[in-house]
TrEMBL record:
It comes from the Bacteria. The keyword Disulfide bond does not apply. Pfam families: HTH_3. The lineage of its organism: Bacteria, Pseudomonadati, Bacteroidota, Cytophagia, Cytophagales. Residues 104-132 form a coiled coil. Keywords: Coiled coil. Residues 14-67 form the HTH cro/C1-type domain. PROSITE patterns: HTH_CROC1 (PS50943). It comes from Dyadobacter beijingensis. This is Transcriptional regulator. SMART domains: HTH_XRE. CDD domains: HTH_XRE. The keyword Coiled coil applies.
């Protein structure tokens, strides 16, 4: 009796990627607007509808094609070949899954809104002081 999973079991791949990303089924369920039990059933399914797979991919930060081609052995092989016991942090390349410039623009916009709220608050204070006199 073999406990090995079939190599193309999409549900197991989704489950493993979710676990590696440190996400819970409840989080995925919330993002998909379904129950946790539905996510559990998806992870037990050998196949998943392409549209649903793309939605799950967005939640996990992995393209649908990446889920289909996911290989846990390859992940651990990459980690084993790139991480060593020496403190050579410069050997570890960092490739974010987001666009850093987009994040910078988001922060700028948040800062701008905060400044505008602060300015409005100060204007209200000035107006109150004018009305007291």
């Amino acid at each position: 009796m073999s406990t090995a999973t079939k190599p193309n079991h999409i549900g197991h791949k989704i489950s493993r990627i979710r676990e590696l990303r440190g996400l819970k089924q409840e989080f995925v369920a919330h993002e998909l607007k379904v129950s946790q039990q539905t996510v559990s059933k998806i992870e037990q399914s050998e196949t998943v509808d392409q549209e649903l797979l793309e939605q799950i991919g967005k939640i996990l930060g992995v393209p649908a094609e990446g889920i289909k081609n996911f290989s846990e052995d390859a992940v651990f092989n990459i980690i084993g070949n790139t991480v060593n016991n020496h403190d050579n942090g410069s050997l570890f390349n960092y490739f974010p899954t987001f666009n850093p410039i987009d994040k910078l623009v988001e922060l700028f916009e948040e800062n701008k809104k905060l400044y505008e709220r602060l300015l409005e608050s100060e204007r209200e204070k000035v107006e109150l002081l004018k009305n007291k006199q």
